[in-house]
Every structure is written in structure tokens, then in C-alpha cells.
Amino acid sequence: MISLTCPVETWAHRRPAGLKLAALSLATALLFATDRPAILGAAVLGVAALYLSGGAGFFRAGLSNLRLLWPFLVLIALWHGLSGQIAAGLAVALRLVAALALANFVTMTTRLSDMIEVLSLLLAPFRRLGLSTRALELSIALVIRFTPSIADKGRLLGLSWRARSPRRPGWRIVMPMAALAIDDAEQVAEALRARGGLEPPGAR
Amino acid sequence: MERNITLIALFAALIAGLGLIPKLTLAFGVPISAQSMGVMLCGTILGARRGALAVLLFLALVALGLPLLAGGRGGLGVFAGPTVGFLVGWPVAAFVTGLIVERWRAGALALTASVASVIGGIAVLYAFGVAGMAIMLDKTLVESALLVTIFIPGDVIKAVLAGLITATLARTRPASVLSRG
Predict the structure, then answer these.
(1) Domains of chain B and any CATH numbers
(2) Nearest neighbour of B3 by CB, restricted to A104, A140, A186
(3) B42, B92 in Cβ contact below 8 A?
(4) Cα separations (Å) of A39 from A30, A36, A45, A77, A91?
(5) pTM of the shown model
(6) What is the predicted ipTM?
(7) How many angstroms separate the CA atoms of B181 and B178, rounded?
């Protein structure tokens, strides 16, 4: 499955994922701690420099990931332009851009496997307490495995709908999609049980 | 145990799959995606606990960096965006929707599941979404609420459809509606 990690490797790809996530949390907390447009503007410039350090293509990819912010930025511009609270609007807009771009930066430079490793590290205390985290690890793998399969079944249902009706397939194919998901779940559960279930290896 | 896990995982995958269905556009130009209907269905079909866990699992994968949200969005950025409140509210919405379907056994399932989806998937969800937007955009709660009212008609349609889908599933395969199991 395609992940959002940027395939072009930058220096940030080689930094430990845990470090990047910790830095991101700290930076985001700091962004929300200030209301001064000057500081937030500097933060946006800093994030832009971070993206540019990965090359022009990386910068453009980062920019296109910000497109979901446009409606909100237009809204803020209109709102604060009309009410005259320019500084407050600027602060909100700059903070949004900086926080979102920074979070995207971490996602774009961290491989899925590294992210999962951090997750498993964070869950280590639970394992110490004797709780199994195998269920979570297994379910993550299952979602990654079955999302394309369910999407494919949805596509096939859409095709068979089109073969029988001149109208577009709509919500009516959702019911069979849900039924197929339940069927898959039952079969996978049976297969797991047949292979010893969720017990950790070596428990028997 | 295994069955609960596979059901939760497969419904997380179903939410992702529903994000790929092309968006419908309402008469007045507001796009609605089938994805939030998936959240309602997690509640009405799987029940409160499993439904909420399926949505949580889905969000965990989005945070890990998979582009599973409608329109191919994902990653940590969506949790720093203005709509983060809606994402945080999703598991709670599925839980409340599921709880209502589990507890309220009188009346037709289509009606129960639709009303449950309206309460969980709209009332509860928007409470979180509006609060999140108020924080992220630095607006009052009332101002943020006004900004999202345009999406409510689409969500009401989705809630009714979720109810109909749940009822159809119960009629054709009664064992599949686990919230009533």
C-alpha cells in the first residue's frame, strides 16, 4: 500500500523517528503557546527552510499537502479582514500553516515501519505489565492487508451495479460491502484460530 | 477474541474503503463523502465497544502515515488541522451510536439506527468538531458552529442511509448485526 512517506530520501529520513515525533510535539505545543504574529511568521519561515533543505521537489510536495488548508485560510482572511482584527487573524493563519506543515514534514520523512517501531516502543510498558500488544500489532497488519481488498470489492460491486442499472452506483453498494467485510472477518478469525490464535509464540 | 479483532480490523478497512467511493455533491455544492457514514455503521453494526475500537484503529493508521482519509489525506498533519475535532470525535460518535442501538430495542431497527446515527454521528460528533475548530481557528463556539452547519444536511442523509443499510443487513443476514447480537 502507498504511504505518505516521500520516496526521495532527505537527511530527515535518516533521523530516528522517535526524535522527530518528540520534536514535533514540543514544537506544536510552542506554536500554540504564542499569539505573536512575528514569532509565528518566523516559525513558518523556519518550516519552509526545513522543506527546502530536502530540495525543490520536496518543497513542492509539501506545499501541495497544504491544499486542504485553503478554504480555512480564505475564511480567516475574510473574517478578520471584515472585522479588522488583522493581527489575530494573521496569528491563527500562520500557526495553522506552521503546525500542519511541520506535522506533514514528519510524516513525509518517516517510513511506516519506523512509525510502527515507535508505536511498539510506546507500548512496551504495557507488555511489562503483562498485557499482550499482539492484538494491536496484528490488527494494524490486517487493516493494511484488507483495505485494498475491500476497496477492490467495492469497485467490483460498482461494476456489477452498472451492468444492471443505467444509474450510478451509490450508497446501495455499501450494504454488501459491509456484509463482505463481516464475511472476511469471520474467515480470517477462523484461519487465525486454526493456526493457534493470538497466543504469543512459545506460550504453549 | 480472534473474531473481535478481525471484525474491528475489517471495519477499520471498510471505513478506508468507503473513503474511496467518489464523493456525492449536494444540490448546493457541499461535498459529502461516504467515510463518516462508515463511522456510523461501525456503531450500528458492530456495537459500541467494537465500533469505537475500529474507528480508533483506523485513526491510528492515519496517524502512522497512511493516506486513508477521503481524498487520500492522512499523516500527522490532519491532526494539526482545523478539523482535528471531528477526528477526535469519531470514536466517541461510533461508541454513542452503538450504545443507543444496543440499548434501545423498541421499534424498527431502521428508525433506531438512523436516530442513533443522528445523535452519535451528528450531535456528539459536531460537539467535538466545533470545539476543535474553535480552538484551532481561535473563534467562539457559536461562530465555529455556524461554519459547519452547512454540512449537517449531508450528514442527516448519511445517518438515514446508515439506518437503512443496518436494517437491510439485519433483514437479509440477521447474524451480521452484532450490536443486536
Answers:
(1) 2-180 (1.10.1760.20)
(2) A186
(3) no
(4) 10, 6, 10, 19, 9
(5) 0.91
(6) 0.89
(7) 5
